[in-house]
Write a structure and sequence with these properties.
Elements (H helix, E strand, L loop, with lengths): L2 H19 L10 H7 L11 E4 L3 H5 L3 H32 L7 H6 L6 H16 L1 E7 L2 E6 L1 H15 L13 E5 L11 H19 L3 E5 L7 H13 L9 H18 L1 H15 L3 H25 L16 H10 L3 E4 L2 E4 L10 E4 L7 H16 L3 E5 L5 H11 L6 H5 L1 E4 L4 E3 L2 E2 L10 H16 L7 H19 L6 E2 L2 H4 L7 H23 L1 H14 L1
Parallel strand pairs: 4-5, 4-9, 9-10, 11-13
Antiparallel strand pairs: 1-3, 2-3, 6-7, 7-8, 11-12
Helix pairs in contact: 1-2, 1-4, 4-6, 9-10, 9-11, 10-11, 13-14, 14-15, 17-18, 20-21
This protein binds one RNA strand of 77 nucleotides through α9, β8, α15, α17 and β13.
RNA sequence: ACAGUCGUAGCUUAACUGGAUAGAGCACUUGGCUACGAACCAAGAGGUUGCGGGUUCAAAUCCUGUCGACUGUACCA
């Protein structure tokens, strides 16, 4: 139930009366919706549940805000009183089953004309809502509304009981499709706490859209291509024999990745070799493709462990490589539209007129592809395959410019506006360690698997002296929940210094606290319901409880 | 150098988009488990919202200047 709407209606009708009294032209553009927007929830509980600041009305009514508040208070209080009297009548009526003989009193202050019969039901409902307003106060220019909480609680519990798991769901997204691209880890690299953020935010968005009635698809745009990957192949070529990939393959591969990066930094020629190797991979070189397949499989197996712990599932794992054979079309369309220009040997789209100084590279000087082109190919593919209304990318803020660029270039791909308008980058701040930035190249990072296991272990430890039969399940729920809650609690935009102690803190404003309160509340409700069923039983329960203690 | 994001208690942050005495949690101090589940509760202390101007009845919020942190600025993703 929307109290703001009810209150806005009350204020609006009474305001119009005021204006009529003062013979003020009520053509001024203050709508009921505006009033609804002005309504706020006071910080201080003693100031009521909803409040309407009257300052903006001062100019219109040519009166001091507190006077206006007083005046509205008096009028609305009458309405509220009438409303609750009304409800009493309704209740009495239903109780005594007197159906006919409609109460004429009710119609008095309700709109006078027509269709009373037809609107009867909604009117009764609305009256009931008004009666849930306990009182109205005027305090220094504010109009404060107090809601009868016991009634809210009663309604909420009844609704919850009726709707069960459907409670809170909406259908505002009916008939619309949303794609959420998130997680997208790089193959052959460890899944560290930087990837955790996109995974958790993305999965939350996925669930929210789903529960709002959207058809929702989760896409894992695997980082399985590009020069970074060619570096790994080059490294493996050099030192592969030294590593046994049958155990902890990702750790070994990241060790190789670290080594080849060091070499690249020392020797520019090696980096150039890597770029050439990527060209080979893209051209289908047998050795490269074989390694690519192997590494991808090993990685997915590792990632799957984490996704299972987090209970995350993807509808598609189409990564960058998937789009490698779909890029030519992007180049063709851009060329046809005269957007592709040559610059320093590469082919780029100039975006200066869009306020973006760096051009978007579409094709590198050596003819091989770049991630922007793959992302553009993905947009084309997704528009055609999924016919999306919204396509959300949950990717870190360091890629802000990249997404700005490709969203602009996408407008040159002859796509319907619906698709280009539906593109959205949900960015988030960087995760840092107390000792500085994380870097897989340098080997300092916290692995998600370790973090999750540590959290579960801590929950287990706390649970040791508790009387529970499903400790394993609960400690997993609590441990994982703690990490997820902690990640979502932090501001999305700001950089975050990862603090293990904070992530594993179960006291205060944390996941375990929320879970604990939910369980406790449920327990209280159950007991209350038992008590209602039989007062004797409850006495027995109490006795038993005391003995148990 | 340019562009973007951010700056609130010792730490992590909230403030419904301009509203009332800036609200929480951690840490700290005090008190509370033989009658609702102590992963808890009650209370205390802790603030010049980075700094200076401006707009407004009203500014943490908008504008402007300034300082600081982070990110990005072409063939990594």
């Amino acid at each position: 139930m929307d109290f703001k709407e009810i209150i806005a209606k009350l204020i609006f009708t009474n305001l119009q009366n005021c204006m009529k009294d003062e013979s003020i032209d009520n053509s001024c553009e203050l709508t009921e919706n505006d009033i609804k927007d002005y309504i706020e929830v006071p910080k201080e509980e003693s100031n009521g549940d909803y409040a309407f600041p009257c300052f903006r009305l001062a100019k219109i009514l040519r009166q001091a805000p507190n006077m206006i508040a007083d005046r509205l208070k008096a009028q609305i209080s009458d309405d509220v009183k009438a409303g609750s009297k009304q409800q009493e009548n309704e209740e009495a009526k239903t109780n005594s089953n007197v159906q006919e003989n409609k109460d004429t009193q009710r119609d008095e202050e309700v709109q006078t004309n027509s269709n009373v019969q037809e609107n009867d039901d909604t009117q009764i409902k609305q009256k009931n809502n008004i009666s849930m307003i306990e009182k109205v106060e005027s305090v220094s220019g504010y109009l404060n509304f107090y809601i009868d909480k016991s009634q809210i609680v009663k309604q909420a519990i009844e609704l919850f009981d009726e709707q069960k798991d459907e409670y809170g769901k909406m259908n505002i997204g009916q008939g619309k499709k949303v794609l959420v691209e998130y997680s997208s880890p790089n193959i052959a690299k460890p899944f560290h706490i930087g990837h955790l953020k996109t995974t958790i935010i993305g999965n939350s968005l996925y669930k929210i859209y789903k529960n709002c009635g959207f058809e929702t698809l989760s896409l894992n745009h695997l980082g399985d291509y590009g020069t970074q990957f060619a570096k790994l192949i080059e490294g493996y070529k050099r030192w592969g024999k030294d590593y046994d990939l049958t155990e902890n393959p990702i750790d070994k591969l990241s060790e190789i990745y670290k080594r080849i990066n060091e070499l690249c930094e020392q020797d520019e020629n090696v980096l150039e070799e890597c770029r050439e190797t990527f060209k080979k991979l893209e051209d289908g070189d047998e050795y490269c493709v074989k390694l690519w397949n192997e590494f991808k499989e090993l990685s997915l197996k590792e990632f799957q462990k984490i996704y299972e712990l987090l209970n995350v599932k993807f509808d598609s794992y189409n990564g960058e490589a998937f789009y490698s054979d779909k890029m030519q079309e992007v180049i063709d369309i851009l060329e046809k539209n005269g957007k592709l220009i040559e610059s320093q040997g590469a082919r780029v789209v100039d975006l200066e007129d869009k306020g973006i100084k760096t051009p978007c590279i579409i094709q590198k000087a050596n003819g091989s592809s770049i991630y922007a082109t793959r992302d553009l190919a993905a947009i084309l593919y997704r528009a055609r395959t999924y016919d999306y209304d919204k396509c959300i990318y949950v990717v870190g803020e360091e890629q802000n410019l990249h997404f700005k660029q490709i969203f602009e270039v996408a407008k040159y791909l002859d796509l319907d506006e619906k698709y280009t308008n539906g593109l959205e980058h949900v960015s988030y701040g960087m995760i840092m360690l107390p000792e500085g930035k994380m870097s897989t190249r340098k080997g300092n990072f916290v692995k998600v698997e370790d973090l999750l296991n540590e959290s579960i272990a801590k929950a287990e430890e706390i649970m040791q002296d508790r009387n529970l039969d499903n400790k394993a399940v609960v400690s997993k729920q609590v441990g994982i929940g703690a990490v997820i809650f902690e990640d979502l609690k932090e501001s999305r935009i700001k950089n975050q210094v990862f603090d293990l102690n904070e992530a594993l803190n179960f006291n205060g404003e944390t996941g375990p606290y929320v879970q604990y309160m939910a369980v406790r509340t449920k327990s209280v409700l159950e007991k209350a319901l038992n008590n209602k069923d039989s007062a004797n039983q409850s006495k027995c329960n109490k006795k038993r409880y005391r003995r148990y203690k």
